Amino acid sequence: MNHPSVPHHNPNATVHSIEEWTSLSSSVTQLIVDCCCCNDGQLTILDFSNWRELKVIEIGSHSFQSVEVVKIVGLNELERVVIGKNCFRKRRITWNRNERLFFWLKNCPVVKELRIGRGSFQYYTVCEIENDDCLEVAEIGSVRESSCNFSCASLELKSAFAWKAS
């Protein structure tokens, strides 16, 4: 995914390392992670609930390779989530077919946009997008290239919102 919001390298990103990730203030409203970050295996669970004021989450490509659980739940201010390509992707050599890997985007009442680049969450077994009634854009992968997003999961999109085809 070549989304303009996810550059190849972003020196102005909020997070460039695991140390910066763990020292983030709970009052940040934009959380921007540079490309190729937080891949050292220290993080296996990524829970965004500590940042209740988040409006934007942007994760650069090839980041969080060892994370097994991504939990974006109950963020009342969150408007936008953009994840670059090949994020949250354990290498096949370290992936166990019986492993349970989870992505949750739930109960974020004003989130309007979810964009996930190709190759991200390849071996994840659960993808739940639920109670995000303002969601207008859910772009996962690419229609022009093999994407391999959530190739081991079924997608669940649950909402009171009535989806309209345009």
What does this protein look like?
The N terminus is likely disordered. It is globular and about 35 Å long. The protein starts with 17 loop residues before the first helix and ends in an 8-residue tail after the last strand. Helix content is 3%, strand content 26%. The chain is built from one helix and ten strands. By secondary structure, the protein is mostly beta strands. It has a five-stranded parallel beta sheet with strand order 1-3-5-7-9, with no helix packed on it. Strands 2-4-6-8-10 form a five-stranded parallel beta sheet, with no helix packed on it.
Task: Kindly list the characteristics that best describe this protein.
166 residues, mainly beta, five-stranded parallel sheet, 1 helix, 10 strands, disordered N terminus
Major sheet: 5 strands, parallel
Name the strands of the widest sheet in spatial order: 1-3-5-7-9
The secondary structure category is: mainly beta
Low-pLDDT parts are 1-7
Mean pLDDT: 85
Strand content: 25-35%
Helix fraction bin: under 10%
Distance N terminus to C terminus?
22 Å
Can you count the helices? 1
Shape designation: globular
Total number of strands: 10
Order of helices and strands: HEEEEEEEEEE
Rg is 15 Å
- In terms of quaternary structure, the protein is single chain
What's the helix and strand layout?
Layout: H1 18-22, E1 30-33, E2 45-47, E3 56-59, E4 69-73, E5 80-83, E6 102-106, E7 113-116, E8 126-130, E9 137-140, E10 154-158
Parallel strand pairs: 1-3, 2-4, 3-5, 4-6, 5-7, 6-8, 7-9, 8-10
Task: Give the gist of this structure.
3% of the residues lie in helices and 26% in strands.
